[in-house]
Amino acid sequence: MTPLRRRAVLAASAAALPLFALRSRPANAAEFSFKLANNSPLTHPQTVRQLEAVARIKEATGGRVEIQVFPNNQLGSDTDMLSQLRSGAIDYFTLSGLILATLVPAASINGIGFAFKDYDAVWKAMDGSLGAFVRGEIGKRGLVAMDKMWDNGYRQITSSTRAIRGPDDLKGFKIRVPVSPLWTSMFEAFGAAPASINFSEVYSALQTKIVEGQENPLSLIQIAKLYEVQKYVSMTGHMWDGFWMLANKRSFSNLPHDLQEIVARELNRSALDERADIAKLNDSVAADLKAKGLEFIEVDKPAFRATLRKAGFYADWKKKFGDQAWGILEGEVGVLT
Ligand code: X2X
User: What three-state secondary structure class fits 244?
Assistant: First the structure.
């Protein structure tokens, strides 16, 4: 074949490719197939509401968009899934802002200790100026964040060894924290010995006593059965943590605009449903965990906060986040330092 003829053949087959790809699609396969992953157990409202969202998306797009949900770390740890999201192996992924901060530093700002006095303050900030700011930062790193965050909750400290009654009890305490500089820094400020461990390994790390304790919202302590391997829970409520619904930017922008709108609308709607589920769970979860044998300890939260302040935690993070981000946070919640 002459070079010219060869080029012509190649050009013809390249032109034919999309048509071939379209024809080779089985009659019942969707035009756009995506993967959505999370770290939450199957019965967690996050998973339940994501399954509902993808069913509505399929229906509203007349079957053109099909999203398969892979919950419960089926596709790996949070760290693994974040890499897969960036490479495009996963299209959608819910991740704690604090862990996302390994890629987008500003995303951990909602985890500043004792920043939000209640849920009204959380949603006002995250649905308002602070959320908009963080979404902008996420957008600069090849990811798209949907408008509505999903609730994880106010975090409480559990332990299988000593009861944590005041900040001094945290000195030398071996505590699992998620993989995130802010978490490590906070527990170092308490004088604890934090170990960064992905959620997929937490139950076994507690069971084998690699660590003495961990911190998570009561709803997750219940749903992931962490009470089976912990004795005490101290109601520190030391930070609020939530999940960003992230999309790979290439994958999302390849969708026609009308389909993007449907996907975003339904994911955001499910985020609001999930928030309501967690709020409802919060009313009953303490009684359930007590009945399962967990000993509850009410603590003096201002004492924990004072320890962080004395250790320079707020001043350090104000510097790290910078005046703009810190100003937005304080604009939402009041002066913190
Ligand atoms: O890893 C955790 O502890 C979890 C499940 O709460 C987060 O996703 C941050």
Answer: strand
CATH class of 27-333: alpha beta
Q: Please state, rounded to an integer, the average pLDDT across all residues of the chain.
A: 93
78-113 confidence digits (pLDDT tens): 999 999 999 999 999 999 999 999 999 999 999 999
* pLDDT tier, 197 (very low <50, low <70, confident <90, very high otherwise): very high
Atom 8 of ligand 1: nearest residue by CA position: 96
Q: Please give the Cα distance from 332 to 107 (Å, whole number).
A: 16
Atom 4 (ligand 1): residue with closest C-alpha?
199
Assess contact for 88 and 97: CB atoms under 8 A: no
CA of 160 relative to ligand 1 center, distance in Å: 19
What residue segments make up the domains of the chain, in order of their start? 27-333
3-state secondary structure 290-319: HHCCCEEECCCHHHHHHHHHHCCHHHHHHH
Q: Answer positive or negative: Cα dihedral of 77, 82, 87, 89.
A: positive
**Distance between CA atoms of 246 and 100, rounded to whole angstroms?**
10
Letter for the amino acid at 88?
G
Of all protein residues, the one whose alpha carbon is nearest to atom 7 of ligand 1 is 96
Residue nearest to ligand 1 atom 6, measured at CA: 216
Instruction: Check if the beta carbon of residue 186 is closer than 8 Å to that of residue 239.
Output: yes
- Angle, helices 129-139/313-333, rounded to nearest 10 degrees: 120
Q: Whose CA is nearest to atom 5 of ligand 1?
A: 199
Atom of ligand 1 nearest to the CA of 99: 9
Instruction: Tell me how far apart the alpha carbons of residues 226 and 235 are, in angstroms, rounded to a whole number.
Output: 15
Q: Please list every protein residue whose CB sits less than 6 Å from any atom of ligand 1.
A: 39, 96, 99, 152, 178, 199, 216, 220, 241
- For residue 96, count CB atoms less than 10 angstroms from its CB and return exposed for 0-12, middle for 13-18, buried for 19 or more: buried
Choose one of 220, 239, 278 to mutate for the ligand 1 pocket test, by most ligand atoms within 8 angstroms of C-beta: 220
The model's pLDDT over 10-45, given as tens digits with 9 standing for 90+, comes to 444 444 444 444 545 666 789 999 999 999 999 999
CA dihedral 226, 230, 231, 236 (to 10 degrees): -70
